[in-house]
Amino acid sequence: MNDIRVTYSGLISLILGVINIPLGFAFMLIVTRTLSTTEYGTWGLISGIIVYATIIEPMISYWTTREVARNENSGKTSVLSGGLFSLGGIIIYLISAYFISGKTDADQNVILLGSILIPLIFSNRILHGITVGWKPQGISYSQIIFGIIQIPTGFVWIYFLKLGTAGVIYSVAVAYGISIIFLLIYNKEKIRGRIKKEFIAKWIKFSWLTLYPALGGVILFLDVAIFSIITESVIGLAFWTASLAITTLIVNSGHISIAVYSKILQGKETKFMTDSLRHLFYFAILFTALVITFAKPGLFALNPEYASAELVVIVLAIQVFLYTISGNMQDFITGTEKVDTNKKSTFKDYLKSKLFFMPTITLIQSSLYIILLTVMLLSMVSIIESQIELILYWAVIALIVQIPISVYSWTIFRKNFSVNLDIKNIGKYFISAIISFGITHVLINSFLEYNGAIIEFLPQVILFIIFSVIMYVGITIVIDSNTRILAKAIISEIKK
Fold it and tell me: pLDDT tens, 66-91?
């Protein structure tokens, strides 16, 4: 069985994830600086519909990760069967597109073109599932490749050929294709052998258990469809998608814990959990402070028109911070469940397991969120003309629902792991962030010039980012011995 090194895999994934951030942002600049708000909103709508189309994909990747981590040879079966399952995803996409996009001002032909992404996303996620099970850091390598390929293809199809949303689809499709080729080579050791029908039979038999967690995600992403249908426009989605693009940085902090789930599946000791949780908070606080401080500059860089959504980004940043922490905790809890290792486990056993209980939390959260969002939109869309004000209320609802779920997730986490939250050190991280990014905020307001020319504006922003990050890291190294140990580990891995 492969012995996964939690800190090593986490640091490699985090370092590569940080490297991938400017690559992703460069592609976003090409997109947002070239596409109109309607075209960018159409891309946001396509992204939302894809969520429904990929609801059946976890039937394979969910179990593949658990099987590979336990040294079961299901890799080849999952890769080849993924193509067949993706046909069902395409059908779901086309049906969803027909009912949702027809009520908006989006280009229907472009929406239908988005279906070419479905089989690529299926293959990519299944290969991710295999990778997480034995060499989690491989996902970050594939994401680097994805980010690199997007940039030249984006220049060709979006910037030079002016294909709009269709150009985004083509660019993303090619990037997925190259990333899939890399993952096939990377995981060749785990996709050898023959196709085993028993794995497919198991996945179909327990499909209810994998579709159930996906149900919460599908309900969660109904927000895009509901907003576009009620407002009869995709312009608001452009601002929402831009805001989400900025806050995605916070989710990257979860890379530091990417190997924890697989390590728990292997049945190893969980002494590493305290360090992993502290590292997660360290980087989540750093990235959240970055997003809040650079909300306006980040949106302005994407497109000056989006800068008015600054407050939306700030509210979403807090929500995504809580989501990232609680989401990782929920994954760790699920990893402790052993019901699927016993072939005699009954339907009732699975219903009582954490594999069913944890997704129920997400389902409750998603349902409350969608209900509140729908009520808000129906009651305010006729009296509020500003799209920015509507998406601000949208962000506030997401935060309000997230808070109790995060508190409850921590309560359940403590019942499953004998880990105490390192309040003292986490407090140091918050104080360091307030000092370093507070000073940066003052400097930005005093010296940053909002120039429409991206080649003049972006270098200024980058200098402020480097300054604030160095200050945060420097303060924490001085006041916290654990950060000094972490810094030495990072330097050591970079040298290697």
Answer: 888 778 888 788 988 888 889 999 99
Residues 171-194: b if buried by 16+ CB within 10 A, e if exposed: bbbbbbebbbebbeebbeebbeee
| Residue (of 149, 155, 140) closest to 172 by Cα position | 149
Please state, in angstroms and rounded to a whole number, the distance separating the CA atoms of residues 382 and 373: 15
Residue 408's CB is within 10 A of a number of other CB atoms, namely 14
- For residue 191, the 8-state DSSP code is S
Query: Cα–Cα distance between 92 and 86 in angstroms, integer?
Result: 10
Residue of 103, 86, 90, 89 lying closest to 45 (CA atoms): 103
Q: How many CB atoms lie within 10 A of CB 114?
A: 26
Cβ–Cβ under 8 Å, residues 321 and 288: yes
CA distance 134 to 294: 36
Q: d(Cα 473, Cα 479) in Å, to the nearest integer?
A: 10
With 0.90 as the threshold, say if the pTM is over it: no
CA 176 to chain centre: 16
Retrieve residue 286's tokens: 């750093």
Domains of the chain, by residue range, sit at 6-421
Confirm if 327 and 472 have CB atoms less than 8 A apart. Answer: no
